[in-house]
Amino acid sequence: xxxxxxxxxxxxxxxxxxxxxxxxxxxxxxxxxxxxxxxxxxxxxxxxxxxxxxxxxxxxxxxxxxxxxxxxxxxxxxxxxxxxxxxxxxxxxxxxxxxxxxxxxxxxxxxxxxxxxxxxxxxxxxxxxxxxxxxxxxxxxxxxxxxxxxxxxxxxxxxxxxxxxxxxxxxxxxxxxxxxxxxxxxxxxxxxxxxxxxxxxxxxxxxxxxxxxxxxxxxxxxxxxxxxxxxxxxxxxxxxxxxxxxxxxxxxxxxxxxxxxxxxxxxxxxxxxxxxxxxxxxxxxxxxxxxxxxxxxxxxxxxxxxxxxxxxxxxxxxxxxxxxxxxxxxxxxxxxxxxxxxxxxxxxxxxxxxxxxxxxxxxxxxxxxxxxxxxxxxxxx
Length: 381
Ligand code: LRH
Ligand code: MN
Ligand code: MN
Description:
By secondary structure, the chain is an alpha/beta fold. The protein contains 14 helices and twelve strands. The protein starts with a helix and ends in an 11-residue tail after the last helix. Strand 11 (about 230-235), helix 8 (about 255-265) and strand 12 (about 275-280) form a beta-alpha-beta unit. Helix content is about 45%, strand content about 15%. Bound molecules: 6-deoxy-beta-L-fructofuranose (LRH) and manganese (II) ion (2 copies).
């Protein structure tokens, strides 16, 4: 039963995780890094080949701009993967200094909206069902712009994008507490994202990036609440120690990841309706193994969450048995699920140890020899 559910898991890797990345202080170039979106897909296909549960890849536009998106999608399929969410980018253009869809100048707002609509065209061409929107919009100084009017401008743009969505397509709105704006951020929290999505309709949902909260925020509560309202669209998984660190998911706080996965399962969100996506950068560690490790971390947290004895938990909760209920949860968390996952992989023809199997495969040596001058992911430039 637990194995059947694990077999159905699907974790999406981001194209930008395979490119060079860094902080605003330095981008460290690595060997064998992809030179174009086609090569990023080849690397993502390796992650899927060794884990068996990463069959789609998110694109970021314009970082992944190509002449023909239909051709890129065909290339993906030929490698055994598909195109996942299309991520818009209205944060890396001089015009967006004061915002994109909330900019005071209508010409800039129009440009930003046109980009978002172009992303829906790309969904049509690639067969992607998900548009992921994150806005860097906000202000740095009190009085700089009208907070309320910016919300009106945001709502206007979201409505236009929503109207453009086709059958089977949806938009996910991502929030983030701060950065790059330091005073007001126009979509700073789940409540703001939720309110906009509620007005838009069923095809609009909130995406929770686990790195986008204030320290101490109870993310599993947000997950439980959004699921209850039918408004949890997915995750951008990563780890944070300080701010939006984009480290490997499950590295900083595997217990938090377990608690989140438990609420997903408890709330009926373990299925295709909630997208499990990674949003990470591997600045100092190798990228493909970094993604494999991340996928495995999510899988381990999921396995532990699936092992929670829900009947025993409910009984302890009904009886007000505080310690008993806590123990049920901790028993599952403290289970070593690695043997179970090794077995599961072996049953599906995979190597039980994806990290070692990838290291032995010779793929890294091949790309390191073939690819010279890998492209920057576009992030942290
Ligand atoms: C913003 C964000 C968003 C972007 C990505 C590169 O911090 O999380 O999802 O698209 O980083
Ligand atoms: Mn994100
Ligand atoms: Mn982020």
